[in-house]
Every structure is written in C-alpha cells, then in structure tokens.
Design a protein that fits this description.
single chain, 254 residues, alpha/beta, Rossmann fold, 43% helix
Length: 254
C-alpha cells in the first residue's frame, strides 16, 4: 500500500496534526498504518503515548546502531503502530551527512523488513530539509503537503515544489503529491484567496477537502488524543474523514 511523506518546509502548518488524524481515520476504517515520527521534537510520539526515554529505542537507534525498524515499533494508544522519535534525532544531519547511501537508508530498511505489506506507512516529517526529511521522500511513493491558510505558508509550498522538482532527475519520475489546506476559516476572505491561489498553481493536486480552523483539532493534542477520540462529532473529525475519503477515491492511498 501507499507510503506517504507528510512534508512541508515551513513549521506550524499542521504536519503532525495531519499525520495524527489521518492515522486515526485510517485506523477507524480498519487500515491502521505504521506511522514514523521523523521530527526531533517528537510531538507525535508524545501524543500517541509512544515516546521513549532512551534514544536507542526510537528511530534514532535505526540510524545510530542499525537496529531493525521492527524492534522500534510501539503500539500507540490510538490503536495503530508508531516508531517514535527522540530529541537525539537532531544529530543525524551532522553525523551522517547527505550521501546517497544515507538518503536511501530508510527505504532500504522498510523493504528489507517487508514493513509495507498490507498497510500504509505515514512519515511525519520535520520542516528542515535534511537527512530525515529526505529519507522520508526517498522512502515514500506519495507526498502530502499541508498548507495552513496564511500567505507565508504559500511561500513554503513554493519551496516544497522546488525541492520535489529538483529530485525528479534522481527518481526519473515526477513525485506524486497532493496539497491540503489546513486551518481554513470560511469566514475570512484570506482563506478563500489562498485556496484559490494554490488551486490556480496546482489544479487537481490540491485536495478539495479542507481542514477547518477548529477548536477540537487544536485541543485534542493537549489531551494526547486524536480528534476522533477527543470530539468524534466535531467539524474537525468530519474534515479528516472527508480528506481520507478523497485520498482513497483519487487513488492517492492505493
């Protein structure tokens, strides 16, 4: 099944929120994904109850001592498996550089351990374009780009597009991607203008489903819960269900 990197080179656009709630939506449909937290902040790990004290028990152990990925999987309290992050991941760039062998390490590990059989894999990426994010892009077959409804986030999208285009000569193909607008406030003209701007640039690659600015989505991480557990009848839960429906119907999650 699909391997999806959730990536944007700007922080605060909803990458972890999207990783969390898309994982929860998949789990509710009987398609529990394996979710990898590749952000040294380890917010996804904390929310899902999979945070570890020892860096060797996180994805850092895979890079540092070549621990098998399967040994690092922990069951999140949301019902899907997670490979947690750790603050020590911030050292990966300085320790391993950006050689081709390093950039393909995660992909090689997933294939070697046959972790993709029968389930999707989601990569929650950090905003820095370094070893960790590039590992996710090299390991994925799809990129989902959350874009918050503000103009600085639109500039971040332009940078993502440049990055993906620069990698096309390496992959010998165009990386399949979708853009999803987050923190959309239907009462604000700016939200509609930003949606229209992205649609003009990227056409059908922009998801029709939009993640609304929603109190339940914002509050749920504070309770270490996804939005479906925290507020199953909320607009936020409806939005992520609609996003999943669209990703399935368009074949993005095939």
């Amino acid at each position: 099944m699909a391997r999806i990197a959730i990536f944007n080179q700007k922080g605060g656009v909803g990458k972890t929120t999207t990783s969390l709630n898309l994982s929860a939506a998949l789990t509710r449909r009987g398609m529990a994904p394996l979710t990898l937290d590749l952000d040294p902040q380890a917010h996804l790990s904390a929310i899902t109850g999979t945070a570890v004290a020892n860096a060797e028990d996180s994805i850092f152990g895979f890079y540092q001592t070549q621990r098998p990925l399967a040994q690092l999987i922990r069951e999140g309290h949301g019902g899907w498996p997670v490979i947690p992050a750790h603050v020590e991941l911030s050292k990966v760039d300085s320790q391993y550089g950006k050689g081709p062998h390093v950039l393909n390490r995660l992909n090689t590990g997933i294939i070697r351990e046959n972790l993709n059989t029968g389930r999707p894999i989601l990569f929650d990426c950090c905003p820095i374009l370094g070893v960790l994010s590039l590992n996710a892009i090299f390991a994925c077959d799809r990129v989902l780009v959350p874009v918050s409804a503000d103009w600085l986030a639109v500039k971040g999208v332009l940078q993502v597009e440049k990055t993906l285009k620069a990698l096309e000569h390496v992959f010998k193909k165009r990386v399949v991607r979708r853009y999803v607008v987050t923190r959309f406030d239907s009462r604000r003209r700016m939200s509609h203008d930003i949606y229209a701007e992205i649609q003009q640039r990227y056409g059908d690659e922009l998801c029709k489903a939009r993640i609304s600015e929603n109190v339940s989505v914002a509050e749920s991480p504070a309770s270490n819960q996804d939005v479906f557990t925290h507020a199953p009848d909320s607009r936020g839960a409806e939005d992520f269900d609609a996003l999943l429906d669209e990703l399935i119907e368009t074949g993005f999650l095939a």
